[in-house]
Amino acid sequence: MFLDPSFFLFIIALLIGGAVAGSLSGILGIGGSIFLVPLQFSLLTKMGYAPDIALKVSIATSLFFMLPTSFSSAYGHSKRKAVLWNKAFLMGTVGFLFSFVGAYIASLLNAAVLSIFFGSVVFLMSFKFYFSKGGGEKPGEISSNFFLYVFCGMLMGLLSGLTGIGGGLILIPLLLFFAKIPLRKAVGTSSATIIFTSLGGIVSYIFHGFGVSGLPPYSLGYVNLLMWICLVIPGVMFAWSITNYSHKINVKYVRSAFSVFTFVVGLWMILKGVLEFL
Questions:
Q1: DSSP 156-190
Q2: What's the confidence (pLDDT) of residue 16?
Q3: What are phi and psi of 156, to 5 degrees?
Q4: What is the C-alpha to C-alpha distance for residues 179 and 174, in angstroms, rounded to an integer?
């Protein structure tokens, strides 16, 4: 296997994917799995693994990838006082529990319906994000509503467990427009919250993957350790370096990048779900 040219291409694709996902984590506060899940799924299916196995391994490994990269990103933002740790702990604790639940019920839901629903929410959020004039940018407006942050943690955790997406795509707009948290702190707090929400899904996918046949080599439950190592090494490096750079970028450019990215992701997920119905 190790001398097979296709194996080297497989490793190179994962290394590049990890670098891209780490960059997204550092600059936008999202886990990067929205990019990694389809990448890994495509690679595994091309190598002959069953689609059902490939999808679960992709989701589980992406969740595991988010753990160190989000920690690296959150640490970098925290050094610049851009993480609201008390709110991150609250949302993360709730998100941990609901991420475990989301991973458990993932196989019971229609993937096409879930894809269309989630894509529609992200798609609409991109417009809200783009056309809003600096929502949450003024100091002194941050909400202290306990139930708002509990709701954010619930929603983020469910999405994380169900789809392998960290939830930052949904959490950051919620923190901006409803909690009135400034963009840089919303990004940093999102990174910190992803640490907890991803952990619940990881535990669930490892537990439910034990004893399953047809998994790729070096798998711990549904988490593939070989793929994880290839992703996480460049992922952590880029998450750290991009985090340092992101605080030098004008906030309006970060907002524009986030709105464009969410627009593309939302549209892609809607089309993906529609095509599965056809």
A1: HHHHHHHHS--SHHHHHHHHHHTS---HHHHHHHH
A2: 92
A3: -65, -40
A4: 7
**Given this model, what pLDDT does residue 145 score?**
92
The single residue listed with the structure tokens 């970060």 is: 254
Q: How far apart are CA 261 and CA 20, in angstroms?
A: 13
DSSP 108-145: GS-HHHHHHHHHHHHHHHHHHHHHSSSTT-STT-----
> What does the pLDDT read at residue 6?
78
> Which residue type sits at 249?
I
What's the DSSP call for residue 219?
E
Q: In the chain, which residues have pLDDT < 50?
A: 1-2, 136
- Cβ neighbors of 69 (< 8 A, separation 6 or more) are 21, 22, 25, 31, 32, 232, 235, 236, 239
pLDDT for 269 equals 73
At residue 210, the 3 state secondary structure works out as coil
pLDDT at position 178 is 86
> Is the separation of the CB atoms in 55 and 41 below 8 Å?
yes
d(CA 136, CA 276): 38
Place of tokens 């985090």: 243
Residue 33, C-beta contacts closer than 8 angstroms, at least 6 positions apart: 21, 59, 62, 63, 65, 66, 163, 164, 165, 166
Token reading at 146: 């306990």
DSSP at 223: E
Q: What is the pLDDT of residue 66?
A: 84
The model's pLDDT over 132-167, given as tens digits with 9 standing for 90+, comes to: 655 545 555 788 899 999 999 998 888 777 766 666
What pLDDT is recorded for position 2? 47
pTM for this entry: 0.76
Who's near 270: CB < 8 A, 6+ residues apart?
115, 116, 119, 120, 123
